[in-house]
Design a protein that fits this description.
The structure is a single chain. This protein is of the alpha/beta class. It has one domain: Vaccinia Virus protein VP39 (Rossmann fold, 3-Layer(aba) Sandwich). 48% of the residues lie in helices and 21% in strands. It contains ten helices and seven strands. Strands 3-2-1-4-5-7-6 form a seven-stranded mixed β-sheet, sandwiched between helices. β6 and β7 form a beta hairpin. It is globular and about 40 Å long. The N and C termini lie far apart (34 Å).
């Protein structure tokens, strides 16, 4: 199933499934990514692949920055707009339908670009991976920050083995049972189990022209926050 069609079909229970399969930790990890994004007090921030808007809303709630969220799934964006309506008037992010391979923004538009659990979709076995990275670099100001929170590969073999079993058995089964979408959560399990290590993501970002690239493992390395500077 193509990714676009997949992420257009899962939104009704997308948030619920995320909470269940991560034991609620996805919220905490996004909050940590939001704090990293806002560390240098950016004026304009983009949540790339924003989905149902959790990172964009966390950014808007925590700062005075102008926040935009971009995604190619219109149903996801509609849910994001509904969720953002609970924010104080004037602080709502602007949610934009668009393609990560051709961002609808001028060069140097943002002080920071954040992405939460969508980086894997843009880079793992994706023929447009380098173009996606180049577009992020293009819309960042010089010295701007790219903050990524994504699944990763635990360093310890036993933890990695358990994590992969959890993905392939529990995540794919629970995702299917809660959403009735076998393909979407089968893809999530397989892509996360086979995704790059933190060091491999770091090398990918350096090769794309970013500098001062670092990453911080989360929960024994099942996820990580990566930070890269243009």
């Amino acid at each position: 199933m193509p990714l676009h069609r997949m992420f257009t079909s899962v939104p009704p229970r997308y948030d619920l499934v995320n909470r269940v399969i991560t034991w609620g930790l996805d919220r905490r990890w996004r909050e940590r990514a939001a704090r990293e994004c806002l560390q240098a007090l950016p004026k304009k921030v983009l949540d790339l692949g924003c989905g149902t808007g959790d990172l964009a809303i966390a950014l808007a709630r925590r700062s005075q920055a102008l926040v935009a969220g971009l995604d190619y799934s219109r149903p996801m964006l509609e849910i994001a707009r509904q969720k953002a309506s609970s924010l104080v008037s004037g602080k709502e992010p602007s949610f934009i339908h668009g393609d990560a391979a051709s961002l609808p923004f001028p060069d140097a538009s943002f002080d920071c670009v954040g992405i939460s659990f969508a980086f894997r979709n843009l880079t793992y076995r994706n023929r447009l991976a380098q173009r996606h990275l180049a577009e992020v670099k293009r819309v960042l100001v010089s010295g701007g920050k790219y903050v990524i929170v994504e699944t990763s590969q635990p360093k310890w073999k036993t933890v990695r083995w358990l994590f992969h079993r959890y993905l392939r058995w529990a995540v794919s089964w629970l995702g299917y049972r809660l959403s009735a979408n076998r393909a979407a959560y089968g893809y999530l399990a397989e892509s996360a189990a086979n995704f790059y290590t933190g060091e491999q993501v770091k090398q990918m970002l350096l090769e794309a022209g970013f500098r001062q690239v670092s990453f911080r493992p989360l929960m024994l390395g099942v996820a990580a926050i990566h930070v890269a500077i243009k």
